[in-house]
Structures are given as structure tokens and as C-alpha cells.
Amino acid sequence: MSEAQHRPWRGILVATALPLRADLSVDHDRYAEHCAWLVANGCDGVVPNGSLGEYQVLTPEERARVVETAVAAVGGERVMPGVAAYGSAEARRWAEQAGEAGCAAVMLLPPNAYRADERSVLAHYAEVAKAGLPVVAYNNPIDTKVDLVPELLARLHGEGLVQAVKEFSGDVRRAYRIAELAPELDLLIGADDVLLELAVAGAKGWVAGYPNAFPRASAELYRAAVAGDLTTALPLYRQLHPLLRWDSKVEFVQAIKLSMDVVGRYGGPVRPPRVPLLPEQEAAVRAATEKAVAAGLA
């Protein structure tokens, strides 16, 4: 069994933006084409129904079909859906759906309807682990107000409940603590704008946003960074950073979709309660994207 099959979350997995038509219905054909395009341009797989995929505003039918569409486009080994939900039973059902669709792993936020304590975090991951698929934890204390600190991650991993963590805290110091407490837990870069720092610290993968618009340049950056080739990585990182930092802003979905439009892909609109970018935000994203295109990164 290859490393990718055994640990399918390694490498670059793009948290895919979801193309919506003008009437805000899901364009599944366009989504399938997007998943295939990402893999053809150097990415290792896709993460449907992440926060970038606007899963919170999809119907259950849409959410299930998005996973099935991705699997049909690139194969289940390359698809790691987000299975976050308010209730543990619902999250487990989404993990079971992922397994039925042929996926090899799932990504799970902690309980996020309220500020969960450690016991309820452990119970939540234990319930979803019953679905039988490897679980990648997603630590996003900025948005969820539940922090999977290194000690808690080590406990989740020690109990066999998670195999990796998408780290979005932005605190790169945690990489070293996690490696000390849980050496077998794979650290995945969770925020685009700390990619280089976490790659140097030993990350085994990147659950990525901006490759939706710049897959080839992003793949080159990631591979150079994890190989320790700073001569290649650092100039690319500096060039892309004005875009990568939008991945950590509130308007990340709108920004990435706009960049997709600018590079000639289809980004399209977002569903409410998200609203379009303000004119000055749009101008900033557009200018940074056009600069990257002019530099030959698209």
C-alpha cells in the first residue's frame, strides 16, 4: 500500500470552492471539472464541504452530491470531505456517507455550536470515528472558539480518534509541541499564509485554499517548501503571500472565488449570509491576483 493510500491526507488537498450559478444553485458539472483540473495541475486531492465549500448553507442533498461528484471526478482516494455538523450523530452520518461514496478519510471540526469542553470534544471525535474512516482533526479556534491545543490533540491521537490535524491557529510554534507530544500525528498546514513556516516545521500536507486559483504555482511552492528548498520556495512565497493571506480573512471565500474569476476559471457568487466584497476589498484582491498572473504564476 502506497504512502498516499495509507495516509491520503498527505500532500496538497484543496479545500474546494463550490461553483454556484447566478441563481445560486450548485453547478455540479462545473465542480467535477474543477476537481479534475486541480489534480491535473499538480494537486493531490480535494476537500469538499470544507468552510471554503460553503457546506453550512447547502441542503443535505446538495452536500451529499458534492462528495459524490468529487469522487466521480478524481477517485475516492483523492477525496477527504469535511463532515462537520452541530451534532455528533449528524457528523457521524456524514462520515458514513463519505465512506459509502468511496472516500478514504474525512476532516472533522470539534463541536462548534457552543464552546465545547475537553470531554465533549473527545466524545464528538469518538462518535465520528465509529464510522470507520480515518479522521483528520481541523483546529480553527478563530472561528469555532474551541481550541484543539497540542495536549488535546495528543490525547485524541493517543486514543486512536484522529490521525492528522489541519492546523489553522496561525501559531506556528505549535508544530514543534505537537511533534513532541504526538510524533505520529501528521501536521497539515491549515492556513495558506503560514505555509512556509509550517512546511519547514515538518508538515506532511496542506489543506489549501488559494490553489483553487493558482494550483500549479502553489504546488511548486509547497513541494519546494517541504523539501527545504528555500531558494525556490521563498521568492514564490513572497510573490503569492498578498493572496495567501486572504485565506485567513473573514472574506476568504469571496476573495478566492474572485481570484478564480480573474485567472479565467469560474469562481462565481456566494450564498447568503455571505455578501459580495466591498469595492476596496475587491480592488485589492483583483490587483494582487493580476500581479500574480503578470508574474506568470497562473
From TrEMBL:
The keyword Lipid biosynthesis does not apply. Coiled coil: none annotated. This is Dihydrodipicolinate synthase family protein. The keyword Nucleus does not apply. Belongs to the DapA family. InterPro entries: Aldolase_TIM, DapA-like. CDD domains: DHDPS-like (cd00408). Keywords: Lyase. The lineage of its organism: Bacteria, Bacillati, Actinomycetota, Actinomycetes, Kitasatosporales.
